[in-house]
Amino acid sequence: MEPTRERGVSALDARIAGMAAAPVRFTSVQWLICAIAALGFAFDLYELVVLAVVLRPALGALGNLRPGGPDFNLWVGLLFYLPALVGGAFGLLGGYLTDCFGRRRVLVWSILIYAFSALAASHATALLQFLIFRCTTIVGVAVEYPAAVAWLAELFANPRQRESVLGYTQGAVGLGGLMAAGAYYIAVTYAERFPAIQGGHEAWRYTLLFGLLPAIPVVLIRPFLPESPTWREKRAKGTLKRPSVAELFGPALKRSTIVTALLVACLYAIAFGVLQQTPRMVPGLPGVRGLAARQVEQAVGSVQFIGEVGSFAGRLVFAVLIARITSQKRFLRAFLVPGLIVFFSVYSYAATHSLALLKCGIFLAALLMNAPLSLLWNYLPRIYPTHLRGTGESFAFNVGGRILGTSAVVLTTQLANIMPGTGPATQLAYSATAVVVLVYSIALMASFWLREPDHAQLPD
Question: Does residue 272 fall inside a structural domain?
């Protein structure tokens, strides 16, 4: 960056910071930032949920593995958990770099990483290649999301505008899931019309490749957007402290750091250990088992799509309710209690008996899981000061969510090996039921320890 820009906040940044102090109309630049952030959020989720729908055919094509076998379950655990583990470690580093070097710069590089990784994964010819490119994809996602949340939170100083912006832009996260489910359905239906990849027309490859499309405008536009005015002003004045992971566990922040990381871990455990395993339950349902291969894949795609509609609905419900939330604890429990009931019913019965019931159930389950997840993203910027905001968010969602929470995939897939049932799909459903009871019980207990923010303004 040029020396003149380092010495002070640019005119554009200063104007944005001044306008953000009061609830006034958004400028065209602010609208553009919100749109680009929403698109980035959607692409983040696309890359996370796409594995759930492409995993089974990808393992068959790259390793000749069939559902239900120990090797198949082992690779399922590896492909879900190792990328999350690597992404969590690098994501925490990315949060630290976000606080050191700025939100926008880290955003651009993270998008480039996962865009090119998605392209490489679609051309993989071996399981190890596929695993490596999935790891680098999730690294990019893990770095991008906390930086974007910190950027948006610092752009809008007015509490009501800030909460609404964070709520509605994160509502776009659900669009990423819809795009993933829709892309797979289109790929399954029209694969033969697309140019060949690695000499064939496999739907899972096109689904991964489609993930590049939302990244193109993000990469082109984001480098020209302004840096966070709050971060730049502190950097220019020399008052920006150096971030420290140890400070997250100081007397003022220790409780919030531990409780939020635990809650995020529980929600990620449900998302990855239960919801994202659902597509592999569909082929074992009555009425699906006897269908042709393409019809089975279409049924899988339809269940995934409905689940993503539920995810989108949950984010929107939160965005509508955010202005009315007076207690973070009550809001969490208002979704955790019915969530336990719905998830238990869906995976103990619907996932083994009826495609129609599973479609209805997964919509409600995804809705109830995503609303509290959005709450925590809005909650974290109000807990950590400017110099720790990216680091604190990254710790909760990368260490708590990706490293701890996503490990539930290994638990679910390994429990499935010893569960009773008439086949691999039924065993997986019962395994998911056990994980649901365990994880929701932990989340409900942790919710009682969540600290209410001291005030509506962001800590300095």
Answer: yes
